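REQUEST ID: PR-0412
SUBMITTED BY: lab tech R.K.
PRIORITY: routine
TASK: structure prediction, single protein chain
INPUT:
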Amino acid sequence: MTDGINASVTVRPSLGPKIRGIAAGLGTSIPLEITRPELFDARRTGELGLVHSWELVTAVDGPGTRMTLFLSGCPLRCLYCHNPDTMGMREGTIEKVDDVIAKVLRYKRIFSLSGGGLTLSGGEPLFQTAFARRILQATHQAGIHTAIDTSGFLGARLSDADLADIDLVLLDVKSGDPEIYRHVTGQNLQPTIDFGNRLAGLNKKIWIRFVLVPGLTDSIDNVLKVRDIISPWHDCIERVEVLPFHNMGQDKWKQLGMNYQLTDVSPPSPQQLRATQQVFADAGFVVY
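STATUS: complete
OUTPUT:
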């Protein structure tokens, strides 16, 4: 696995603001007069990071009104990813960590009034571990609620001190079956389970996310295995979100010259969605 530090990576900062829906880039990207060694060193320390985009949302990526910051880079290759442009370290703007933190702190009053905060997402936010660590630490110390949206695959990179700066973990459990998980993501399931076990041991608040993809993750056997994996974490799980597959990212795959394998897959029916939600509800979870 490459993380852009231990192997080569091509960084192509945007020439203007990045757009994601209504979200624009942070607008604080640094000048490009920086050598490759200097860039790698700054990434090791978390002084610089590659930010794909950001947006303000309400009750989507955690409670209240939140700034969701999308970081570039991900070790997974999910077949249904709707932001494939975040997979590699090729899209986004190079940002100074202090500038990002300052941007977040400007919204502190809104976060306070709404019960919101900051959510780091991606890609995989832990792919840029040092950068994410510094943002989370400064934001948490400022009294702002913090969350990460993660697959948990890189959870071992976080120390207990790092986790103390995270108030909520949105944990994406892609599949309960190891073979399906590898087919869907290209990686192993066990690191996600290990991270969930660790979060539960620390009594960390968790929201589980499971994407229901017809013909891929929707078998009752797979759903039951997801239920069985998360059941030991029950006391820490505030909600389970069953997210219906959509193919709105298909055009991005084509633009990037990537092979999108789910062209003929339709979203799950309302009946399929309710049946899957019921599996988790019957296990005593609050389900959305």
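NOTES: Residues 146 and 168 are 7 Å apart (CA to CA).
REVIEWED BY: pending
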